[in-house]
Amino acid sequence: MDIARLxxxxxxxxxxxxxxxxxxxxxxxxxxxxxVSLYDGVQYQADYLRKNPNHAVPTLEITLASGETMHMxxxxxxxxxxxxxxxxxxxxxxxxxxxxxxxxxxQMLHFGASWMDMMLWQIRIHTHILPEEERDARTxxxxxxxxxxxxxxxxxxxxxxxxxxxGDTFTAADCVMGHNVAWARRYGLCTARTFRQYLSRLxxxxxxxxxxxxxxxxxxEVPDGRPVKEHFTG
Length: 234
Ligand SMILES: N[C@@H](CCC(=O)N[C@@H](CS)C(=O)NCC(=O)O)C(=O)O
Prior knowledge:
Blueprint: E1 3-10, H1 16-27, E2 32-35, H2 46-51, E3 59-64, E4 69-72, H3 75-85, H4 100-129, H5 137-161, H6 173-186, H7 193-202, H8 206-211, H9 228-231
Parallel strand pairs: 1-2
Antiparallel strand pairs: 1-3, 3-4
Helix pairs in contact: 1-3, 1-6, 3-4, 4-5, 4-6, 6-7
Bound molecules: glutathione (GSH).
């Protein structure tokens, strides 16, 4: 089955930026983007919930050559699928056969999209999104410590010996990891020089520049009175 067209539902700097970055790497600007105004609560409207019952971005709408459309709702799965769907771009070690490089790549992609992501999300929602009375400072402290003590050393070991998270070659796993490192830095983590140098290398990529051109529209704090505050479920 061939992909006829891709459309990304996106909000600046959030997890959809990982996918937008990879789409720019793979397709230049030849895909569609619709901004979902998260702080206005558009993700909770019935039309959007039909596409993504988790009321979140990213949602990737895939139109097949048959005209049929389907939706993907997990950024890690999107990154994995898209990198494999365009093998000529060389952003993932080949699928379909065992290789140590493939195993390592998948491991880092999923480490970024699930394990690290879980900690960053807890820090974010308990610092900036949940209502004040539901925020738990102990949760923030716990995950800041776990991230600094357990995650950062693993990443540093890799980035001190190679330019990218899986070695000398940039892969789609760097779209997850680069986004996560930038996210972590907004919360006072990943401050070591090695992380700054990693982001500096990544940020010179034309696809990165396109993906994050709208980053100034993102604010960490959800301004008071914005509709998302009434709906947010964590
Ligand atoms: N596991 C999902 C998480 C997606 C997610 O939680 N996205 C956030 C933005 S980073 C969102 O849209 N939240 C809106 C809400 O829950 O109201 C993924 O990686 O795609």
